[in-house]
Amino acid sequence: MTFEPLLHASIAIQIHVAAVVPAALLGAYLLLRPKGTPRHRLLGKIWLCLTVITALSSFFIHQINMFYGFSPIHLLSAYVLFGCWGAIVNARKGNIEAHKRIVRGLYFGGIVGAGLFTFIPGRIMNKVAFSGDEIAPLIVIAGIAIVLLWQLSKEIWHRRRLS
């Protein structure tokens, strides 16, 4: 592991990584801990701020130039910004089920899912985490995908049992 590629990256990428890493860790903590407590509310606000910073900073990253400097990942960033707003609105309205659904989608789609693509060979985070190794990231991505599919199947099974 080396931080050299990140240190030579643009300031937008550095801000993006500085926001998304704590957002990923804090988001996992929040998903696993009791909900509705004062701590949950405070840490949830911090998580939302980090998530918004992550999404906003992505609009200044243009490494994948498909359409005037933008790529499909920027559509995900717009989705994340609207999702953050929806999470706040639903929490304030007391619509906790919608709040939970949105936050899970933001975390698993916006952070975990998008994060997997940063480890593709040739990308900066691949060089940071694996020093440019071609096989190791594929093994990690496969392992994370298996865990996510397992979690998704548990969620679907749980919903079917409630129906």
UniProtKB/TrEMBL annotation:
Pfam families: DUF2306 (PF10067)
InterPro entries: DUF2306_membrane
Segments crossing the lipid bilayer: 6-30, 42-61, 67-90, 102-120, 135-153
Keywords: Membrane, Transmembrane, Transmembrane helix
UniProt protein name: Putative membrane protein
Species assigned in the record: Rhizobium lusitanum
